[in-house]
């Protein structure tokens, strides 16, 4: 989604950036309201070097989204909040003059372990604060992750496995004869395939779906009233399959792409000293 023209009320504007493994995810907030969200590729070094020279919000948006619509040049640089799972990128973004990097110790979840990904923590916190705990978040991104917390906002735990794209790519790149298969919504994917491409598609898709179903069933055994939210780039594809195979599961899921941004908003609005409220 491209940024819109500038909002009518320009007080308390702030920019959120999630640095993912594959892409950059952006959100423009006006106070507590998410005004616009969009994705870009990781930016080239030449653009990164120019960020520190930006003087207005319009200058910044032109650098990070060259095809976007212009904002008024009278808007000063707004705070940029960064949540990153790519350490090499984090330091680069700190060249921007008004950056705040959100770290794990700023997320109020209880019982977290030191290496829990900030993306998983923020998505879980955002989902729980929006829809209530207990909460399980399924992220269908580069990695497929499960992250859960109980009614006391304490981390229950989770799991990580390669996502659809990684599984397809690994088979194509790490074997002698198997082809690289692209991700797509296969309308009638046979479970027992009669050619190599469909065999790969079947193996990856159906085992991921089985894993998602198993984790959801285990979660509901632990917390019968627990909620489940799903996000990530492959959510629509996987939801289509779940709807066809297990409609009762698909219908129970909260589908929300912006969970991490809701988590970042909770951090911002809960901090009375950062000047963004």
TrEMBL record:
Enzyme class per UniProt: transferase
Compartments where located: Cytoplasm
Residues the entry annotates as binding K(+): 139
GO molecular function: kinase activity
Reactions catalysed, as given in the entry: (R)-pantothenate + ATP = (R)-4'-phosphopantothenate + ADP + H(+)
Residues that, per the record, bind ATP: 18-25, 142
Cofactor: binding comment: A monovalent cation. Ammonium or potassium.
Keyword field contains Kinase: yes
Keywords: ATP-binding, Coenzyme A biosynthesis, Cytoplasm, Kinase, Metal-binding, Nucleotide-binding, Potassium, Transferase
Main localization, broad class: cytoplasm
Active site feature: 119
SUPFAM superfamilies: Actin-like ATPase domain
Pathway: Cofactor biosynthesis; coenzyme A biosynthesis; CoA from (R)-pantothenate: step 1/5
Cofactor: NH4(+); K(+)
Enzyme Commission numbers on file: 2.7.1.33
Keyword presence, Metal-binding: yes
Annotated binding of substrate, by residue: 113, 117-120, 196
Xref: Pfam families: Pan_kinase
Subunit structure: Homodimer.
Family: Belongs to the type III pantothenate kinase family.
NCBIfam families documented for this protein: baf, PRK13331.1
PANTHER family: TYPE III PANTOTHENATE KINASE
Role description: Catalyzes the phosphorylation of pantothenate (Pan), the first step in CoA biosynthesis.
Protein name: Type III pantothenate kinase
Source organism per UniProt: Nostoc cf. commune SO-36
Lineage: Bacteria, Bacillati, Cyanobacteriota, Cyanophyceae, Nostocales
